[in-house]
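User: Predict the structure for this protein chain, please.
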Amino acid sequence: MHSIAMQRLNSGSDSISQVEFTEPPLICGLPDDIARSCLARVPRKYHALLKCVSKRWRDLVCSEEWQSYRLKHKLSETWIYALCRDKFEQVCCYVLDPNSSRRCWKPIQGLPPRTLKRKGIGFEVLGKKVYLLGGCGWSEDASNEVYCYDASGNTWSDASPLATARCYFASEVLDEKIYVIGGLGSNSSSPHSWETYDPCTSKSKSQSDPNIVPEIEDSIVMDGKIYIRCSTFVAPSHVHAVAYEPSSGTWQPSDADMVSGWRGPAVVVEGTLYVLDQSSGTRLIMWQKETREWVPVGRLSPLLTRPPCQIVAIGKSIFVVGKGLSTVVIDVGNARNMEGVLLSSSIPKIKLTSDDDVISCKCLAI
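Assistant: Here is the predicted structure, written as structure tokens:
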């Protein structure tokens, strides 16, 4: 009798254990794969609410699986992230949902305190994360620290450091890695060095190339190559560019014709290079590869833009973001002029009194 009772007791404890470790379904009455498919179709602006429903929903919304599913099924939505400096000379970040019926920039809270006073910080996006890289201060040498913002979880964390401490450098993403290029640092070789930073493996590999100079003013990725635009102390008015060829792993001088018109913030839209020329007013020009010449697209109304501006693109729409985050949107797929001025829509700046300077803008899709 005693052994039978013990068997029943053990059997009962096994059942209890199975119940305890069986996860509840995402949605009652639905298999998890169907529930996941339903939830993935919820617009991104409601994802913060989804995370409040249950721990399983929160874990799902914050997972790489969630982002991959939405990207694969063309459900992802792209938001714009801006790195700025306010009137107190402190770094700040903002985010814009361009699809919202009430489009406006919103501040991102909780920036790492050590970054707030730094200059020359790198700002890059990879996957669903935003990275703040390096930087320096008045009484602080160049840093190799990296901080990461998870856009789905709305959280900041430390990330693995750069191989070389540096500030005022260029950064671009290519083949799922962040390329950190040139800049100033405590190491004398830093101005001519570049490194590939892989957050997934926490590895960073530094290399040198004499074609890289410290005075990098802009960078783009086009046709599978990274281009950096530089100037020199010898001839400040002279601008040249070098391109990184992944197949050979080398940096080579770029086409002089293309570089001649690249004198402002640039963005690539469906393989075409657009540049915001701010030398006299604000106008958009484009590089035509076939004829190898720069062609004017049109001028922007001086009533809408507040230079100096940065530009970023989602689809065929170019967002011109100026002081105070005043934003002008141009559809280059259907660009039209009225007496030489581009027709565009605008997004009001964050505050009527805001004069935040925009350092960089990046896109992130979830």
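The helical segments are 2-21, 32-39, 47-50, 55-61, 64-72, 256-260.
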